Amino acid sequence: MAGGPPVLLGLRDAAMAGPVPAGPLPAWATNKLGGTADWVPAVRAGPPRCARCGRALLLLVQVYCPLERGPAHRALHVFACAAPRCWGAARSWKVLRSQYSQAQDEQSRDKQESNFAAKDWCEDADDWGACDGAEPPACASLELLGLKEAVSSEVECASQLQQLHLCEPAHGPAPQDTHPAASEEIAMAVAESAPVFQPFYINVVDEEDYMGLLDTDHADKLLKEYQQRECVDLEQMMSESFAGEGGNEKYEKSEVKSWDYTFHKFMKRISMCPEQILRYSWDGQPLFITCPPANLDRDIPACSNCGSSRVFEFQLMPTLVSMLQSDSDLSVEFGTVIVYTCERSCWPTNHQTPLEEFIFVQEDPDQRLFK
């Protein structure tokens, strides 16, 4: 927190209902959960498949996250297998990164996107997918995704959303077809037939704004429920007294197991904003739900493209599990899913397929009771 990279929290916003008219914000620059993947221009990809069972993976989140030091639009897509036996397997998850350079943007984007520019969202930007500073009053994504107060009227919010976003079904995984009309028809047919999680917009807030709003009652309730399921000593867990971050954390000596301590720390931190479904902090520190392997840092593979180290970028939170809705009774369960990406955010010249990054999955501690 203090002195480190800022932490931004993703919250579920309004449902994405289509069709809606095209607006100034491209579909690939929309932060969302569920639905189908919208790839940046010049990038094509088929639906990834589970390396464990072969099923098509479902999109969990799409995050638009350009970086200040790179002249690129940048998006990350996280996919998972809905088969229960695959939930905890790393091979059943994929995170794909795709980028689109400003030079390409100027050459090929149409007039509807001509005023859209990438901005850093971790240091100088106030939102995910910030608009060009040349027209701040008309910055649509700032109203939807920025660190502003939520609109007071649901009708006004719905009206803004419909003006800002493209029709969801028209932007499924792009087929390998050079004819735009045919591609659109095929994409729509695939989107209609393949099961997906219901899409919702993702809004963003700064965790710093929640620091003075710690809901200890909510944290205590969750911990008591956890105690009953795990048969752990709540008094020992609650005897820990936190006095700061990092090396300043102190707790009374006890025989509390390390994974109990880690879980308590996790629950205490997220109790400031229990509805968070995503935590973003480029090159920051993840929040583990159970004690991670001692050698995790050494086991994170280098970038397969340039060989650079990978850094933490964001993680999915357990609240997301209950928000994944579908008409096909699909579900995915996890404790937290942590995404590490290339620290250089490399991108080969004229590359047309997403680059795979590293994902680390921690199961919900409760799942151990059923195995």
Automatic annotation (TrEMBL):
One Pfam match, given by its short name, reads PDCD2_C
Residues in Programmed cell death protein 2 C-terminal domain copies:
260-363
Under the heading InterPro entries, the entry gives: PDCD2-like_regulator, PDCD2_C
- GO BP: apoptotic process
Could you give one GO CC term from the UniProt record?
Answer: cytoplasm
In terms of PANTHER family, this protein maps to: PROGRAMMED CELL DEATH PROTEIN 2-LIKE
The protein in question is named Programmed cell death protein 2 C-terminal domain-containing protein
Q: Which organism is it from?
A: Catharus ustulatus (Russet-backed thrush)
